[in-house]
Design goal:
By secondary structure, this protein is an alpha+beta fold. The chain has one helix and twelve strands.
């Protein structure tokens, strides 16, 4: 009885070199794609889903704003107090670091999609969109939505948004 015949195959050095370089190219491509994906995610170029809390808007206690005076303008101030811009309140405003935001913040302590300002029944509200560091209305952390008035201050990271009439 004869055993199976094993054919001795030899791989030439040329084929080994081609396989080695192909494997390295695939490895570098994988690492490049992983780093690119992380960089795009951090810079905010990819659209993120907006988290909308289904909570009833509340009025923050101890607010300096005058009741019944809805704001018409948002003034953005940097951490050193310089005015970074002013926006008219007409429609909903998305606030954050992402390019898709209406009010784009250059603040590393803000999230890509941090908060939004929106109108309901003639009143304006601020809503935290599940941010990491939170949204503060007159030094009180916003849980869900809170009504805002002219004179209120919203702090997102180190940036302050002043609501004016």
């Amino acid at each position: 009885m004869r055993g199976p015949v094993l054919a001795a195959t030899t791989v030439t050095p040329f084929v080994l070199a081609v396989l080695k370089y192909a494997f390295l190219a695939l490895l570098y491509f994988f690492v490049f794609r992983a780093i690119r994906s992380v960089a795009l995610d951090v810079s905010g170029r990819r659209g993120a889903a907006t988290v909308v809390a289904a909570t009833k808007p509340v009025r923050a206690p101890g607010k300096p704003g005058k009741p019944g005076r809805p704001p018409t303008t948002v003034v953005v101030k940097t951490e050193n107090g310089k005015k970074a811009g002013a926006y008219t309140l007409k429609d909903q405003l998305q606030i954050g670091r992402a390019e898709a935001c209406h009010i784009r913040l250059d603040d590393r302590y803000s999230s890509q999609f941090h908060a939004r300002l929106y109108s309901r029944n003639g009143a304006w509200y601020v809503e935290d969109l599940g941010s990491t560091n939170g949204t503060y209305l007159n030094r009180q952390k916003v849980q869900g939505s809170a009504e805002v008035q002219a004179g209120d201050q919203i702090r997102i990271g180190r940036t302050v948004l002043e609501l004016k009439r």
